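Q: What structure does this chain adopt?
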Amino acid sequence: INDEPPSTDRAKKVSAIHQKINDIRNELKNVRYELQKYLLFLNLSSTDNPSPISKGKSITGMTMDGVVSEIISVNEALIQPEIKPENSIAYNVVFEICASDTPLRIPVAELVSDVSSKTVQMAERIVPNSCQVSTGKITAENPNSISIILAGQIQSSVDIVTLENKINSLKDQMKVEQDKLNSVLTSSSISKEERDVIISESTLKITELRKELLLTKAELHSNILQVYR
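A:
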């Protein structure tokens, strides 16, 4: 039989919840501090003899040749999960993914350690010659074993960008044909026979382009769906 009054039990539960919230806030502050530290590093420069900014370099100083992934920092997480592999510790990882000349679509990074792995979904696009910084948490026995890789997205990204470019091209072609059609319909300088021929040709071309556009969009959506699976 519990001799403690119910109010005491509630007070303990409320206190535990407040403590958990404070722990989460402290961990969030630590992660924000790490990100702010690297942002500050990017903006600091000598006022006496400023050096030129190196082009094609990532935040960690790597040359951006193709797609680059690199860990920026690894710190022990303030809040440890209740269930984790034996002898392991949870770590907060700050990392970067960079793209050089070709944009990277729907990048999915994978954190890997000596005891676990975790997929991290990033933003929908990394524009050319830029980097995106993100964070993730992973358990490891040895923090030096933690690495970051792209989860097989490079070819998928190329395919998606190619399909997006094709869709834009088809839309441009449709606009050209539609403008031609509108011009013919309002023109008084051509004969009825010429007008009928142009209308027939443009209408057929627009119909074909619309079919190809729908098929290309379906293929694009299928590729994007495969990435998220």
